[in-house]
Specification:
- By secondary structure, the chain is of the alpha/beta class.
- Helix content is 42%, strand content 14%.
- The protein has 18 helices and twelve strands.
- Strand 8 (250-254), helix 9 (261-272) and strand 9 form a beta-alpha-beta unit.
- Helix 16 crosses helix 17.
- Mean pLDDT is 85; it is low at 1-6.
Length: 460
């Protein structure tokens, strides 16, 4: 028997009469209804907002109605319960995030395949501590709100939206990036492979929102030959390839520590002779100044490329950044995936904290992608993590016992001390009798007593 169709016109009139913001998502997470109170809150026209898909992310790469829809998206767990509470948000033109509590109700008789979701939003903004005491936000929701707040602040200042983290090293890196964005100083980004050096370079070039963006010219020093590097540098320094965008362009020397020795001299001359403020950003696995001190790099070029040095630590040395980074990368996948994940469980985050991350941030991005695809529910739990994470966690929990070295001389010395001590005790301090018990002469016993620290040389 076919399921009776709902009176959608009557439902629309009912929801439209409410003073609270209300919107309706279909089973594809698309906004199919939005009342006037909701449109007033988010500042959108119905033609722009209706039909937008609600994906659970806070990326600054989307703007306009698509970004508004992302803010209105409730956590994926809302689709697992008949009724639940959530926090949704919208960002005003000044970049301020307005968070509001919301009630969600599943539509349809089949909880496994709901027909849609009604979201009823509170009339007033919620404070960070305004969650109902019986249902405080879980760790994934807290991380989502922190990523959203970071993105809003980054969007208001500059394009540093991927440089999240609470560690002192990342805070310093963000402040240095903002300094570099506002100047034309030459910047050197130092860090191990996979640590995010390219993200730093991109943020410096694309971050200034007050000036037109020029061209980002990458030169892979580890791949290109000396002749091609020299000709490219010459063309850039002479504005041959840049034209009117020359003054706002950026030259990126990737892996500058691998710049061929034969080109380091010409490169120094070419870069020093440029007649316009071309920004130069270089990346390296280690300090160029230290390489120069070791005689492995041209000193004047190392100094010229190291005006401002941004140091990126290995991910294993800033583990407190892992939860926010994992949440950020997961939400970036949400933005383009039909599968929506709210975040990682606390147990899964504990496993990530125990992993050594030899591939640094790049490996974390790959792990998040694998886990997002493997997860069965709205949250990524430990069962969805790749096998290598489990093996590393198990190894950390059960470390191999450290083998004790046996130094033969020390081992025999301890035995000799024990035997001599027992002999002297049996002889009640009589060294002549003790020597006989040990099968040695009294002078030899005395020498051993001195050598082993039993007596001073004049204590005979």
């Amino acid at each position: 028997m076919p399921r009776p169709r709902a009176n959608t016109a009557g439902l629309s009139r009912l929801l439209g009469s409410l003073s609270e913001p209300v919107y309706l998502l279909d089973n594809r997470h698309t906004i199919v209804f939005c009342n006037d109170a909701c449109l007033d809150w988010v500042g959108q026209n119905p033609d722009d907002l209706l039909g937008q898909r609600c994906a659970y992310h806070s990326s600054v790469s989307v703007t306009g109605p698509e970004a508004v829809a992302a803010g209105l998206c409730p956590p994926p767990a809302a689709w697992q319960h008949r009724q639940s509470t959530a926090v949704v948000a919208c960002t005003d033109t000044a970049g301020h995030v307005h968070r509001r509590r919301a009630q969600t109700v599943l539509l349809g008789d089949d909880a496994d395949e709901p027909a849609g979701l009604i979201v009823i939003v509170a009339a007033d903004d919620a404070s960070p501590d305004d969650a109902p005491p019986e249902s405080p936000p879980d760790e994934a929701e807290q991380l989502h709100q922190r990523v959203r707040a970071f993105h809003a602040a980054a969007l208001a200042r500059s394009s540093i939206d991927r440089l999240v983290g609470d560690s002192p090293a990342m805070r310093l890196a963000r402040s240095q990036v903002e300094l570099a964005i506002g100047s034309r100083a030459t910047v050197l980004v130092v860090g191990p492979s996979g640590s995010g050096r390219q993200s730093i370079a991109d943020a410096i070039h694309y971050g200034n929102r007050t000036e037109p963006r020029g061209t980002l010219i990458p030169i892979a020093c580890s791949v290109l030959g000396a002749e091609l590097i020299q000709s490219t540098l010459g063309a850039v320094a002479n504005k041959t390839t840049l034209g009117e965008k020359a003054a706002t362009s950026t030259l990126l020397l990737s892996d500058a520590d691998l710049l061929p020795v034969e080109i380091q001299g010409p490169a120094t001359t070419i870069l020093a002779a440029r007649s316009f403020p071309l920004r130069i950003v270089a990346t390296s696995r280690q300090s160029l100044v230290q390489l120069a001190q070791q005689g492995q790099y041209r000193a004047d070029l190392a100094a010229a490329l190291s005006t401002l040095v941004i140091q990126l630590l290995p991910l294993a040395e800033r583990r407190q950044d892992i939860p926010l980074l994992a949440q950020l990368f997961l939400e970036e996948i949400n933005a383009h995936s039909p599968r929506q994940r709210s975040g990682f469980t606390s147990e899964a985050l504990d496993c990530l904290a125990a992993y050594p991350w030899p591939g640094n941030v790049d490996e974390l991005i790959l792990m998040v992608s694998e886990s997002h695809a493997r997860a069965d529910g709205p949250e990524v739990d430990v069962t969805a993590l790749p096998e290598r994470i489990h093996l590393a966690t198990s190894a950390a929990a059960h470390p191999r016992p450290v083998e004790q070295r046996i130094v033969l001389e020390d081992f025999l010395g301890r035995i000799e001390r024990e035997l001599i001590g027992r002999a002297i005790a049996r002889a009640k301090g009589n060294k002549t009798k003790a020597a006989k018990l040990l099968g040695m002469t009294r002078p030899r016993l005395y020498r051993r007593l001195v050598q082993l620290g039993f007596e001073q040389p004049d204590g005979r």
